[in-house]
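Lab meeting, item 3. Inverse folding demo.
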């Protein structure tokens, strides 16, 4: 949970008169900056019912705002400029002028649209206004511009979908109705809740914040100001206390709607005739009950036996995540990747129909991730490819019709590029195909894979350092990628597999068994922030090592691909068997257990 605080006061305060007149920083602004390290903070500034005009040289007022905004940025605060829309009746020309003034002279990170209509007939109005923000404003942090809207109540979904954050409550009344069913696809963590004029705030603050947190609300501000005056003209007397409460919740009470998961198959072979399921193994190995998502990878030759026993485990709370990898590693086809996909289309759609019919026999929640890692040349910039994947999704959905099945279909691009960067310019390369696919998806997603060795651009197996693989910034990079996907595509996000191999090549001076655990920890420790960015689930790909996974040396990660499991296999070399218990948990497994053990076991898929 974060705070969305309207900071409508002037950044300086004055005292005295004439020659003795002095100015000093506004304590409200100072308090927001001082507390920003404790909780994610978004501040909305309102210089004069919108921006003051630009001037050259800057006026004293403009200089005051520029200096104060820079201080908020230094403290880690995201700053939005206030623009009113008169419930969709204000001229879009004037709205654009305000946005451009903020862009040119204030250095803000985005815009907060106020007086927003909740009527679907004005969706194009707000979509146009939001597009202006995303086109004209470049955040000083390098992140995509943020759009927040304030209808003060639940809007039509078409209005909400124009924004990254929607204020669904602004009132003196603390009670709020649940979101209507028509808004079920809008992530709860994108909602903001503002309440003012609360006379008994010290007594009810903790309980109110806890309730909102448990519901999954993303942003909040509670203030005792506003009795007969503008509630946002000054700061709540309990602001620092509120931030401390939010910090405690973020640390000790993980969001109830965040899901964890482990595994790349439902059943593991201990011997040629004995199996152990992933849910059984997780329980025996001491993994917390919060690990409810179970990964099932399906290639083109998948068999219905892969699903044996799945309904039993679904009845006990497990959520299957089907990684539908029909096309396999499409990158191996280079510039012929699209031609290869074209040759597969008829068979692929027939297989999607088969998968849909199997899923139609299940009761409960099932997620399907279509063809992960497709963002490669000839596919990512190809509208036809996006349209084909959309057809795959539609085929599965059409054949999986069942009143007791809660089916959610998405895709997951690969996090490729320069791992030393947190914000990678390569992420924009898949926009063409994604936009063609997006209307058929319930969620988007991405993967994170790192190893001490993998093929280089020329196809040679090469050894890499932890720094080159970006392990120290893996968590922040994943968070930035999630924020990128959310701001561009406005869908819930799943991270269906994280893999950090424990294999250390001969002669390597780094210990990748330890580094692997650190890599997983870097992402897991960002769970609360990832939820803020729209992520609803995070999964480790493999529970056990697979000693046969390197495909006789042809795998992209070579020998490292045999060590993606959190738990060591007792099976022999080149064998898919994991052998009998007891098994040895790697440091990465200990990290996964530690970071997920305090989670609320209930997992809600949007």
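The presenter then showed the designed sequence:
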């Amino acid at each position: 949970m974060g705070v969305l605080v309207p900071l409508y006061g002037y950044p300086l305060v004055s005292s005295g008169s004439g020659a003795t007149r002095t100015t000093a920083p506004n304590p409200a602004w100072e308090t927001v900056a001082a507390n920003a390290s404790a909780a994610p903070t978004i501040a909305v500034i309102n210089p004069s019912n919108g921006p003051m005009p630009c001037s050259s040289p800057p006026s004293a007022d403009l200089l005051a705002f520029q200096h104060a905004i820079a201080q908020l940025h230094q403290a880690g605060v995201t700053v939005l400029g206030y623009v009113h829309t008169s419930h969709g009746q204000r001229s879009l020309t004037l709205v654009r002028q305000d946005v451009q003034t903020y862009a040119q002279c204030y250095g803000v990170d985005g815009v907060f649209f106020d007086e927003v209509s909740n009527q679907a007939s004005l969706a194009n109005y707000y979509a146009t206004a939001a597009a202006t923000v995303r086109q004209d404003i470049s955040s000083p942090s390098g992140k995509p511009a943020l759009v927040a809207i304030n209808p003060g109540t639940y809007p039509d979904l078409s209005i909400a979908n124009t924004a990254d954050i929607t204020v669904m409550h602004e009132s003196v009344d603390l009670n709020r109705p649940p979101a209507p069913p028509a808004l079920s696809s809008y992530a709860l963590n994108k909602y903001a809740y503002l309440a003012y004029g609360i006379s008994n705030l010290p007594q009810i603050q903790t309980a109110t914040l806890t309730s909102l947190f448990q519901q999954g609300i993303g942003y909040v501000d509670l203030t005792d100001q506003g009795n007969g005056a503008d509630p946002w003209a000054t700061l709540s007397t309990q602001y620092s206390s509120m931030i401390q409460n939010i910090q405690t919740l973020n640390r000790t009470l993980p969001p109830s709607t965040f899901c964890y998961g482990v595994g790349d198959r439902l059943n593991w072979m201990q011997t040629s005739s004995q199996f152990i399921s992933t849910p059984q193994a997780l329980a025996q190995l001491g993994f917390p009950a919060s690990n409810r998502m179970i990964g099932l990878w399906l290639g083109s030759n998948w068999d219905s036996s892969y699903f044996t026993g799945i309904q039993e485990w679904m009845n006990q709370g497990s959520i299957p995540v089907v990684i539908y990898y029909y096309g396999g590693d499409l990158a191996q086809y280079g510039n012929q990747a699209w031609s290869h996909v074209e040759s597969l289309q008829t068979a692929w759609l027939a297989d999607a129909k088969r998968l849909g019919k199997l899923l139609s026999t299940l009761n409960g929640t099932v997620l399907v991730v279509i063809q992960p890692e497709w963002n490669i040349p000839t596919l990512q910039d190809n509208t036809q490819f996006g349209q084909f994947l959309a057809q795959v999704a539609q085929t599965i959905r059409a054949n999986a019709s069942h009143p007791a099945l809660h089916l959610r279909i998405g895709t997951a691009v690969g996090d490729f590029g320069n791992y030393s960067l947190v914000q990678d310019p390569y992420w924009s390369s898949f926009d063409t195909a994604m936009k063609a696919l997006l209307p058929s998806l319930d969620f988007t997603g991405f993967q994170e894979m790192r190893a001490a060795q993998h093929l280089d651009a020329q196809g040679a197996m090469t050894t890499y350092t932890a720094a080159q693989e970006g392990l120290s910034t893996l968590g922040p990079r994943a968070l930035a990628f999630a924020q990128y996907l959310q701001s561009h595509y406005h869908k819930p996000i799943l991270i269906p597999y994280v893999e950090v191999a424990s294999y250390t090549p001969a002669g390597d001076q780094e210990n990748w068994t330890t580094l692997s655990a650190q890599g997983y920890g870097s992402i897991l420790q960002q769970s609360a922030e990832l939820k803020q960015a729209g992520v609803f689930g995070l999964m480790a790909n493999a529970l056990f090592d697979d000693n046969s996974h390197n495909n006789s040396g042809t795998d992209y990660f070579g020998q490292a691909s045999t060590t993606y499991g959190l738990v060591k296999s007792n099976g022999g070399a080149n064998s898919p068997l994991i052998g009998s218990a007891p098994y040895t948990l790697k440091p990465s497994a200990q990290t996964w257990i530690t970071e997920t053990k305090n989670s609320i076991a209930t997992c809600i898929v949007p």
